[in-house]
Specification:
The complex is a heterodimer of chains A (376) and B (347). Chain A has 376 residues and is an alpha/beta fold. Chain A has helices at 25-31, 33-45, 54-64, 69-79, 107-120, 124-127, 142-155, 177-186, 225-233, 237-244, 260-263, 273-283, 299-312, 336-349, 353-368, and strands spanning 3-8, 86-90, 128-133, 160-163, 190-193, 252-255, 287-290, 321-322. In chain A, strands 1-2-3-4-5-6-7-8 form an 8-stranded parallel β-sheet, sandwiched between helices. Chain B is built from 16 helices and 2 strands. In chain B, strand 1 and strand 2 form a beta hairpin.
Chain lengths: 376, 347
């Protein structure tokens, strides 16, 4: 029996539009030798400050600058080489419709590269489990979305579907209805990004102010793109999908558990997200969450880990939490091995080692299995 | 008399610019090699035409192809040139592979993925695979290019001849495209040479205005420079300096850099021997003798500003002149020497 890391990335920086993070600084640092030298020098001058040091950004850039996704995946495998068989849910990113320009490597290339890695490298098809990133803005109607998804799931062996509403769509977008129906029918896992981050829609907000549902909690007048992304990501939107639209059995992972700040009650505006995700998990049979990225936070004597442990011991939601790390996006915050080992050690120290088996094996098996893939 | 003097000044100037161009070319070749400029430029121009948003980035595939990948020095250092034959073989191979319909299917018994091979693929001829591969592309700029590679090949043509003809078409397209992009590279090079030339002019204080004034006034020194220039040209065919001027020779990148650096060193030595008014030691001496800035420069900000502008124009002029390259100045020098000889004979 293998263990599962349910949230990783292997896309290279070539797949990211230059303005995806607002300013082209990341690309500049990562893509230019002069920029890299300056960053190295700055890191040497201020080794411990800022908290997420430039050195770690540099490591992030180094990984991202890898020539191919296979290089990145091999980097990931090397971190887990002593852990036996580990399977990774790999999440591509389609950032072409987010108003930040076109990346050097277009989305189709990114997908083709993943398919080739799995076909041409013995054993990789069984440990690299790709989800298909779906952005409805790319398609003219729901049938086109469905055809796209069916092709990649049924012909190319993709395991699940990845949503990232922050890049400019609502989860209850009409064009996604048929896809939800198909996913529910075949129990195909969906993973949706559920925290406020630096990757969000950078284009004109005016055509985003008239969604299909207009609940009170949406702030549709907001003029700031960073603030507006909350409208897309808000976990309450999924009640419309699960309840109002009737996809009650949809298997969906609300990734990142709302984010570390929301979990610790330190978020300025999103403190309701964490309890809302818990409620969704309690109310619907197939709603999950994962602890990717949030794991980096060990502040205040492991306050977040303690909260997680309490949730993991809960008889209902405790069986719906998945292990994931968010490799290599987390690298600026904490290296992958440290992130994993700190959490594992914490569980061991608290006599909760079986919980690690639960979140890396039992729960992922249930979550990932569908008519097209059986996790064992 | 005045005409001969003017020719001598121009001749000396051309010689000085040529020496500096050789020196700057040496520095630039080193920079190009360190930063893999040629390789990166080649990748950029290929990406420009092979990255089709409606299909795939075929430049990426090309660079991953074993034929191209094997000539990369390291993972991130791209080859500085690519033969048309390698390009044609690699592109044909990439497009042929595209017609292969392998799929991944989860096997519920073994609980593993099976790669389902395309049974039809191996029954096709290389040309049919290529044609099918192009047919599978979405309409887009690259498909239109790829279609021109096979449009003049009739269905009835022998299969082996057809694929050879297609490869020849790809080679011809590549050569034409490379010829066109060669012009882009030269334009890009020119801009960089102006910048680098101006930086060198600033660092070594090579002010064209001062040089002209100096060459005009210092008869004895001008005579020495003219003589040195004529000797240089006379012997250029038999010595390595000529090689530095010839950028088209088919030699390896490393030896080209070595040759440039050696020529740069030699050029530097000649410049030093010419005892020119360059460098910062004599800066204030020369500022005093031009455009009457001497009096004002010493006592007012306007004077300094005027002097600064004068220096700036002088440096940029030098940079601009250097950007024409050693080849240009060598030819100019030869023409000026011929003119000088004709003038002398007429006299």
């Amino acid at each position: 029996m293998g263990i599962y890391n349910c949230h990783t990335h292997i896309f290279t920086l070539a797949c990211v539009p230059n303005r995806a993070m607002g300013i082209p600084l990341a690309n500049w640092i990562s893509g230019d030798r002069v920029g890299r030298t300056i960053a190295k020098f700055a890191n040497w001058v201020t080794p411990n400050s800022p908290k997420r040091s430039l050195g770690r950004y540099l490591t992030f850039a180094e990984i991202g600058l890898s020539a191919t996704q296979k290089n990145v995946f091999d980097d990931l495998l090397s971190v887990y080489k002593e852990w036996g068989t580990v399977k990774f849910v790999v999440l591509p990113m389609d950032m072409e419709q987010m108003g930040a320009g076109l990346p050097n490597k277009i989305y189709r290339d990114q997908l083709k590269e993943i398919i080739d890695i799995r076909k041409n490298n013995s054993g990789y098809a069984d440990i690299l489990l790709p989800f298909l990133f779906v952005d409805p803005n790319r398609f003219s109607n729901g049938d086109a979305v469905l055809n796209f998804v069916r092709d990649y799931i049924e012909v190319h062996g993709f395991v699940g579907i990845k949503l990232y509403p922050a890049i400019g769509y609502y989860p209850f977008d009409e064009k996604l209805d048929k896809m939800y129906g198909y996913a529910q029918q075949h129990q195909i896992p969906i993973l949706t990004h559920c925290t406020q981050g630096p990757t969000y829609y950078r284009g004109n907000l005016d055509n985003k102010r008239n969604p299909r549902f207009r609940p009170d909690y949406l702030d549709l007048k907001s003029k700031d793109n960073d603030d507006f992304q909350r409208n897309f990501t808000d976990p309450r939107n999924y009640r419309y999908v699960l309840d109002t639209l009737g996809f009650k059995d949809l298997k969906i992972n609300m990734a990142h558990y709302g984010g570390a700040d929301s979990m610790l009650g330190k978020s300025k505006k999103n403190n309701s997200w964490y309890p809302e995700i818990k409620k969704l998990m309690a109310d619907f049979p197939n709603v999950y969450t994962d602890i990717s990225y949030t794991l980096y936070n060990t502040d205040d004597d492991f306050a977040l880990y303690k909260k997680l442990l309490a949730d993991l011991n809960d008889p209902v939601i405790g069986n719906k939490i998945l292990f994931g790390t968010d490799f290599y996006v987390t690298t600026p915050a904490k290296p992958e091995d440290k992130l994993r080992d700190e959490f594992y050690s914490f569980l061991v120290k608290n006599n909760s080692e079986p919980i690690f088996d639960k979140i890396t094996q039992t729960v992922p098996q249930k979550y990932l299995s569908s008519d097209f893939y059986v996790a064992d | 008399m005045l005409q001969a003097k003017a020719i001598d000044v121009l001749l000396s100037l051309a010689f000085i610019y040529m020496l500096f161009s050789i020196a700057v070319s040496g520095i630039y070749e080193l920079y190009q090699s360190l930063y893999n400029r040629r390789g990166r430029f080649l990748k950029k121009v290929l990406t420009e035409v092979l990255n089709d948003p409606h299909n795939y980035n075929f430049a990426d595939e090309l660079y991953r192809h074993p034929l191209v990948d094997s000539v990369k020095e390291t993972r991130k250092v791209f080859p500085s040139n690519l033969s048309s034959e390698h390009f044609a073989v690699a592109m044909a191979d990439i497009l042929q592979y595209r017609s292969r319909n392998k799929s991944l299917r989860f096997n519920h018994e073994t609980k593993k993925y099976d790669v389902l091979e395309d049974a039809l693929y191996d029954t096709l001829s290389p040309f049919e695979k290529l044609k099918n591969g192009i047919d599978t592309l979405n309409d887009g700029p690259f498909k239109r290019i790829a279609e021109t590679w096979i449009f003049d090949i009739s269905e009835g043509l022998d299969k082996n001849l057809a694929i050879e003809k297609a490869k020849a078409n790809i080679e011809a397209w590549f050569n034409t495209y490379m010829e066109r992009t060669g012009g882009w590279f030269k334009r890009d090079l020119r801009t960089r040479m102006i910048t680098l030339g101006s930086v060198v002019a600033l660092v070594f204080n090579v002010n064209s205005i001062i040089l002209v004034e100096y060459l005009w006034k210092e008869d004895a020194q001008r005579e020495i420079i003219v003589q040195t220039a004529m000797n240089y040209v006379a012997t250029a065919d038999s010595i390595s300096q000529k090689q530095a001027l010839d950028t088209n020779t088919n030699i390896s990148q490393d030896s080209l850099i070595k040759r440039h650096l050696q020529s740069a060193q030699e050029a530097g030595k000649i410049i030093e021997e010419l005892n020119l008014p360059i460098g910062w030691e004599s800066f204030y001496d020369y500022k005093d003798s031009f455009f009457e800035v001497k009096n004002k420069a010493n006592d007012s900000w306007w004077g300094y500003l005027k002097f600064g502008l004068f220096a700036l124009i002088g440096w940029i002029s030098t940079g601009f002149a250097i950007s024409f390259g050693a080849d240009f100045w060598y030819n100019a020098l030869k023409k000026l020497i011929d003119t000088k000889k004709t003038l002398k004979e007429n006299k």
